[in-house]
Amino acid sequence: MRHRVLVAQEDAASRRGVHRLLTAAGYKVSSAANGIDALDIASGLTEEEIALLVTDVDLPLMSGLELAERLREDRPHLKILFLCNCQEEEEPELLRKPFTSAELLVSVARVLNGHAELALTS
Does the model's pTM come out above 0.85? Predict the structure, then answer.
């Protein structure tokens, strides 16, 4: 079964790049420029249809953290991978930008396969 990934990234070029990379790797991908658009996309899909949310921490209109919380209200088993420009000490919860294609694909596979639950606590 091909997993569906919902990508929420403000930067259009980055969003297109992630979309193309994940699609080429065999994932079904839906993309949104902000949290509100991501919620709209998710509202048309069942809980089982979205396996993973890949989101920027900083999104317009709604943070990636709030987006993740809202999606998990109806999808408690939704896996999440946060993307961040942050420079804090190394933590496994985030995929820091800039990242390589290989780093993104490895992180997505790890989260989907349950080897890491990448989540950010506030």
Answer: yes
